[in-house]
Design a protein that fits this description.
heterotetramer; A alpha/beta (485); B alpha/beta (301); C mainly alpha (315); A: 485 residues; alpha/beta; Rossmann fold; seven-stranded mixed sheet; C: 315 residues; 14 helices; 2 strands; globular; binds adenosine-5'-triphosphate; binds magnesium ion
Amino acid sequence: MLVVRGVEKHFGATHALTGVDLTVAAGEVHAVLGENGAGKSTLMNVLCGAFPADAGTVTLGGARYAPADPDAAFRAGVAIVHQELSLCPRLTVEENLLLGDESTRAGFLDRRRLRERAAAALARVGSTTPLDARALDLSPAAQQLVEIARALVRGEPRLLILDEPTSSLGADDAERLFALIGELSRAGIAILYVSHFLEEVKRVAQRFTVLRDGATVGTGAVAETSIDAMVTQMAGRRVEELFPRSEHPRGEPLLVVEALSGSDKPLAASLVVHRGEVLGIAGLVGAGRTELLRVVFGLDRVVSGEVRVGAWRGPRSPRDALDHGVGLLSEDRKGEGLAQGLSLAENLALSRLPSFVRGASLRATAQRWVERLGIRAGSVDAPVSELSGGNQQKVALARLLHHDVDVLLLDEPTRGIDVRSKAAIYAEIDALARAGKAIVLVSSFLPELLGVCDRVAVMCRGRLGEARPIAEWTEHAILKEAVGA
Amino acid sequence: KKSGTGTLKIAVVPKGTTHEFWKAVHAGADKAGKEAAVEVIWKGPLKEDDLKQQIEVVQSFTAQGVNGIVLAPLSDKALGASVKGAVAAKIPVVIFDSDLQGQDHTSFVATDNRAAGRLAGDHLAKALGGKGKVVVLRYQEGSASTANREEGFLEAIKKSTGITVVSENQYGGATTESALKTSENLLSAQNAATGGVDGIFTPNESTTFGMLLALQKAGLAGKLKLCGFDASDKLVAALEKGEIEALVLQDPFKIGYLAVKTMVAHLRGTPVEKRIDTGAKLVTKDNLSSKEVQDVLHPPS
Amino acid sequence: MKALLAKKWFGPLVALVVVYAIFLVLRPETFGRAATLLTMSQQTVVVAIAAVGATLVIVSGGIDLSVGSSVALTSVVVAKLLVRGHGPLVAALGGCLVATLCGALGGALVARLKMLPFIVTLGSMSILRGAAKGLANEQKIDAPARGLETLLQPAAGSLRPPTGVFLAIAVAVLAALLLSSTRFGRHVFAVGSNERTARLCGVPVERVKIGVYAIAGLLAGLAGVLEFSMLTVGDPTTAVGLELEVIAAVVIGGASLSGGEGSILGAMIGAFLMTVIKTGATHMGLPNWVQEIVTGGIILVASGLDRLRRGSATS
Amino acid sequence: MKALLAKKWFGPLVALVVVYAIFLVLRPETFGRAATLLTMSQQTVVVAIAAVGATLVIVSGGIDLSVGSSVALTSVVVAKLLVRGHGPLVAALGGCLVATLCGALGGALVARLKMLPFIVTLGSMSILRGAAKGLANEQKIDAPARGLETLLQPAAGSLRPPTGVFLAIAVAVLAALLLSSTRFGRHVFAVGSNERTARLCGVPVERVKIGVYAIAGLLAGLAGVLEFSMLTVGDPTTAVGLELEVIAAVVIGGASLSGGEGSILGAMIGAFLMTVIKTGATHMGLPNWVQEIVTGGIILVASGLDRLRRGSATS
Ligand SMILES: Nc1ncnc2c1ncn2[C@@H]1O[C@H](COP(=O)(O)OP(=O)(O)OP(=O)(O)O)[C@@H](O)[C@H]1O
Ligand SMILES: Nc1ncnc2c1ncn2[C@@H]1O[C@H](COP(=O)(O)OP(=O)(O)OP(=O)(O)O)[C@@H](O)[C@H]1O
Ligand SMILES: [Mg+2]
Ligand SMILES: [Mg+2]
């Protein structure tokens, strides 16, 4: 069905793809694996016509395939869901869904038909988002579903590309997506699936191809390969334990939140985090975990309640919070976490600039963090938008580490991060706890919560449940509390 | 540092370049230049009435080293320094059209604007029979020559106790378009259609034409007595039709001609007078066809 | 009702009504007359038509600084053609054609060379102004209007608005339909909202941009024809600064200069609001400088209140 | 070398050198004189100083349309104070103070009420112009310059640039340092690049914005003092349209109107480029309309080539 031979792509001096081979059969779900910056998204962008390959050949269904632009790719039957959310923020869901393929009658938009098509596509992915909502008012999960629906709205594609589709989805939505993938592959559609969740890959994919440094280094059947083996291929060496956990004795209470309410969520949330402790917060998408962290940090409006860190009483403003050792990692790295136009070095130091800034020292600092977190970047002076998704996430995290706060509020810190780097980040979190920091970890990835946290609390419809030691939780217990049962 | 080529280079700097008045000045200057066999460089500010750009043009000519500068200053004070600079660089300056403070320039060639304004005022007072309501649509804030005309007009009109000036604080602005809009609003605000206005004074071409258009649109042309300034084909045609009561004409051709002539005379060592008046004429339907008026309207070129 | 409140043009509409009412109370005898309303609508026509084009451009994420020059050039071209003995229709079409070509050319630079709209239209603003002056020999061109003048002149004494006013309304309605009910219109919003996404969704971004600038050029041309009809001369120095007035109307009407947002109705309200302020101030006999302060103040207060209203609505 | 090519101001610098060289070849006797260079640098001073402020504003993601009015108001205030018998220093400081306050006030509206910079400065453009005219009693104010005139006038015959030129250079250097090497400067970039990120990182977004507009006001004031020094009268109608010239200089110098990008050096090159074009055209004896066409053409060609160059560098 799809045969890729020796495809290369470079951006200036960066060689993103240096020789990719890939074969996908009709009706096959084919996983593309690789570490952050390996070139997965670049390959997908080449396949969907976003930019041309510099070398190599692609055939689709036996015919030579070299789309001049995305529209040509659509017409050839290739649909894609991009890694980064990319809706038009001010347009409605319906307008976004049918963008570029509007139905018209006598030159005018056929509104009824448009709504029907949009509604059908949304129903297919199980989204309940109203058609008239504006994209910028949607949560990342809702936007992701709209994007998936958009890939299907023009009719069944021959090849569907999904670039980390579940990174911002909750478990429920992900389940529905897996079911949909099964259905599509049974109908003979080839699917390219990019993900850092190897358990997911195990479930949905039949075959996989591993990229490293822009080249294919291996391919195989999923059923015959263990997760460990995949990881080893990706990294080029064995990766030790995923969740390194050391003894970090719990100290005195550091962050105290009392009956904190935001304008919508959270509702009278209270919690205490001690030094040397990692507190996990679980919940469904839309439960208000993000809002909780934002209110604590002083980014969102407080309606009532109080936050204390030592003698400091807040929340007041992010500046104030940062000055008193509280830092937040945003879940929305594209829209909020990073200033895409600024360089890696500038982004990294932004919250902690000296009165007089020396470019050289900024770069030196950035270089240190690049090495410490294994960030793949051409240069620390290049705009952060040129980094791969996972590497951007690392930069956002590095900023918090560099600021050296005592209380870290981490919202989905490993979103889009490869397995090896995840392990490194978990080790980092562990080390921070040992150093007496207090950490709040919001995550939709349960193994992560169970593997890293000392205590876990579950949030449901704006209300925060009681935080209990990790030993008292199972995945099942968390899910049960999350749905409010 | 006279340029070696022999022909004298004289820069003529008007206040603007697109009003018909300046076109006639240009023609006069060119004619004088041709007669005296000197090169006339005509260069005004890009935007009409832009003081700063005019200063820049004068500075630029000074730096370039022309032989003489003939200037119609947009401000009687602000151009002083640039003129001083030119004179210090051994470039003599003749001022024309509007006056300049100080003694640096060689000569001043112009109409007496205040007297010209009085001419219009006296005529309008007479035409109205010494009573009625009069509107003055001013030209632009800070323009000295038109302000003098406006003051001269007011001075004369206020001598008639039967006449009240009902509006004198509106400015028409630099273009016909802005003058037209202001005129329309002014006419309706003063109830011109129902006898709220009897006479109007406008101090230059663009305000006169804008006001004329407004009157024509409101169907009031000819019913009110409009005294304007300067001439263009459309204004003269309106004068003939009786839509304009009177126009005060300066002789722009003569102004340009004399200004350059004066400069040439000075450069060639002939003594010139400090003040040269070029006069102004009041034109009505009656004397429109007279030879002296026709000479001003259609200068020999 | 809530839907109404959420409309971008609701704030400006309220401002318009309030300002109108204030002047009405202060000067009922003159400001309240039908003739005044008529004059105001006539005076708004040129800005309004140009603002329709500017709305498209701004919604698409661009900006057009050349509209004033384009209007002046058109008025000169029309006058030239009339002087040469062509009929009014030929003259008007000729003027519009020139303006459309200039717009499309600018659009091509923006779309194909990916030059910034601000710079492209700044350049063409200067070029078109120069061309107008050159073509007109740096003078106003007296031309026989051959009936074109009636576009913006009501039959004397009559209160029926002249053709130009209906023309402006027709243009606005058509453009509003274009924006809301055609594929092209949606693409304009999409390009302004997120150009990359639009491209990835197969929107012909370049063609959309060129189309938008060409339409804006055409409408600037139409505005130029009406400007000629108002002045009855081709004036190369007219409409200096019109671009700011036009952009102001569009922005006051709720458009965002970062693209993806804006409404024709809003722009029309914005354009009319400014005429009302100007006219009202003249009727009050306020000196020009007070007028300018009042105009600025109203712009600030109107959009400040709008901000406060929306702020309180969302939070 | 490659780093140099990547600089935003490299393209405009090449354009400047090329244009300068062309005029030098065409008019060596007059354009090549030191006096010409001196005159050009003097004539750039006002735009350059205002452009420094505008660069800050544009980098922060805003825009300032009020700079022309602010310059005019300052020139009037300075003249008024001199007429009242105050010394030159008091007059200059008084003028700058007024402009700074106006800037800060506008900044407060932008930052606190979240009003659009375009609308706020459009309003203040009108208000300040009106205030200038009112304060000046709708006339140019004749004032004893008391030495202020020497700021922009070289001693006759001397080729030493006047103080104003050095002042402009000093302002530019200080502002460049401010932008590149202080926390405030980096914050300005961050706010312009992504305001939400800036807030997340504890950047005091509101204070940064107010600061930026206040500095822009101060520099507009300084430009106004120099304008006075050039005119030696307080002129309420001066500097109409200066805002576009200033923004053009900044944008030609490589800034992006969507914020987060821009350089002081680039803006200075942009400002000087425009003076060179203007002066060169005068020396060539080109009529105004040709000059306008040439100016527009150079703007288009310079930035078009720049686009092509960068396009080929990245792909
Ligand atoms: N527009 C660009 N300009 C320059 N370099 C780029 C650009 N886009 C991607 N790159 C570089 O290409 C390489 C591959 O990036 P890509 O986005 O394909 O990685 P990825 O495998 O999708 O990683 P991730 O898992 O983090 O999403 C990276 O080194 C990245 O920095
Ligand atoms: N109606 C809305 N309008 C604007 N933003 C919204 C809206 N609903 C959700 N969001 C934003 O979407 C994000 C996620 O929403 P929420 O906090 O409710 O989910 P969550 O519990 O954090 O789940 P997850 O992190 O898994 O997405 C938040 O940043 C929130 O501000
Ligand atoms: Mg990727
Ligand atoms: Mg969340």
